[in-house]
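Posting this for the archive.
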Amino acid sequence: MSIDVVSPLRQRMIEDMTARKLGAGTQRLHINSCKRFAAFLQRSPDTATLDDIRRFQLYLAESRTSICNRNRIMTGLRFLFRVTLRRLDLAAEIYHLREPQKIPLVMSADETKRLLAVTSSLKARLMLSLSYGCGLRAGEVVRLKVKDIDSAQKIIRIEQSKGRKDRNVMLPAETLDLLRQWWKSRPSRHDEATPLPERWLFPGKRPGKPMTTRQLSRLFHEAADAAGIKKSVTLHALRHSFATHLLERGTDIRIIQALLGHEKLDTTARYARVATAMIASIASPLDLLSQSHKKPRRRKAPQPM
């Protein structure tokens, strides 16, 4: 039986990341980035030179690695060289590429309605309703606990989500009704000893663990196929649709920013580029120009006889 041995360098990097309170997912990505660099070098990363950094970045470009993944890999390496190894000269050689600004793919109100109507179960409908009706990320949905639901104030509390930030979102009446129905049928054999407020709303197959985002994504794609949605949408499109539809109804963009948990308003403002109802309602200068040419002529007053 093989036993994975953690090298002193990896252990030191893990300690550095833990001391800075980086999340488990971020730590895993940084470690994988360094493993990929080590595989490229065929030796330990602490022996890297300036030329090695240059060649690795060229290799990523030639291997057609996406800009997003390429930047993610180099972020992990920058942490290794700047923090763990204190090699500021190597860290300075790392550069990031500007990512293309793409318009989020959203669903229409009719498509969303169809998707929720054809869900295969009460659980699927509830989870997808939380994604769209409250603008929650997939990870936020699966990590909801009983204590996060405040039915008295009609809000849901999202604790320590992306960026380690708390926020409140609305709790629609229909979603609250679904929550109450789900609680009656929710399996509880694995968490009967857990205090009620700390129980997961959507327990997973492993005792003490919530449902995975992969399972939730599978439920979404099953519903999208059943609804006949042809767009190449992902589960995150429900969050995009939440923001876009609120903007089209005239909701203040700063309120949408708070509901989404965005730190910068610029991030929220991109939904103005996909709010098709707003865009279609804007009068084009060409329309205004055409209207000016169609002004009725004034009739001349009749001459006295």
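Residues 8-91 form a domain with the DNA polymerase; domain 1 fold (CATH 1.10.150.130). The longest helix spans residues 24-41.
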